[in-house]
Amino acid sequence: MGNLGNFTKGQSVEGMLRQQMEKKEYFDGSGGKSPPRGGGGGGGGDGFGDSEDGGWGGIIDETAQVILATLGIIFVYMYILTGEELTLLARDYLKYLFGRGYKSVRLTNAMEWWESFLENFKPEESYDDKYWLEKAIINTPTWYDNPEKYRRLLEAYMESQEEEEDDDDNDNDNDNDDGL
Is there a contact between 129 and 135 (Cβ–Cβ < 8 Å)? Predict the structure, then answer.
């Protein structure tokens, strides 16, 4: 780069850059005076916004970076808001885990919260009925065998039994009347 001693209070940064361009003083890291490659319009590919890989790999890489950066910002924000509380909770948990302490109120509340949170993801308990298949078969109507048919047969049988009992009672009553 050019001599920085030439930069005085009266000269602006823009003026200094213009002067370097007129003298063709370019900084390329090797101390030479070769002009920068790629021109001035960003045609180089060394820019910060350019991706190393223009295909799917580059897209996935940039997406992963954005997601991780977002999560990082969220965790830093959470730490700023509740950092001291989280630090104390972590300390209580480690003491409890290694057996040097007891469950603090803070740790108990956190464990209860996680338990209720995880309970939402637990599948419902089904009560085990060992006759569930038989019940499903019996209660399923088909074109040749309907449970209603058996109900009607049972009702008819019960009515016939009642009629026979009534007839037997009437016969017994009639027998007793004849003997008087």
Answer: yes
Low-confidence ranges of the chain (pLDDT < 50): 1, 42-44, 51, 180
Give the distance from CA 158 to its chain's centroid: 59
> Whole-model pTM?
0.30
Residue type, 135: K
Give the pLDDT score at 75: 87
Q: Tell me the C-alpha to C-alpha distance, in Å, between residue 6 and each of 3, 12, 140.
A: 6, 11, 100
The predicted pLDDT at position 51 comes to 47
Phi, psi angles (nearest 5°) of residue 156: -65, -40
CA distance 89 to 86: 5
Distant-in-sequence, close-in-space partners of 95: CB < 8 Å, separation ≥ 6:
101
Tokens of residue 172, six digits: 């017994």
Give the helix ranges, DSSP H, for the chain: 13-23, 56-97, 105-119, 132-138, 147-178
Site of tokens 């049988």: 157
Report the C-alpha gap between 48 and 62 in whole angstroms.
12
